[in-house]
Amino acid sequence: MATYFMVEVTRVKDKALYKRYAESAREIIEKHHGEYLIRSRDLKIVTGMTKPERLVLVKFPDEQTANACFNTAEYHALTPLREQAVESRALLINQ
After folding, report:
1. Fewer C-beta neighbours within 10 Å, C or N terminus of the chain?
2. Phi and psi for 23 in degrees, rounded to 5?
3. What CATH number is attached to the domain comprising 60?
């Protein structure tokens, strides 16, 4: 059963750092069979009060693969970079 990783970036604090993080994270995610489905800043609010700056949606084959990706030392090393670059929240969604 597929698992989706959704990231809602609520604020980009440092565009250059975010670019570095995103490029490094992409390599790790793709190495773990993650497939980027959506990366967009073109978002329209239908309901609700807040609009994220960006939305990212990645498909993994299953939850175990997604967890394996995000629990690697390689990905954890990016955490400080992400925290300096953006405010965000991330979810795993099982289909």
Report:
1. N
2. -65, -45
3. 3.30.70.100
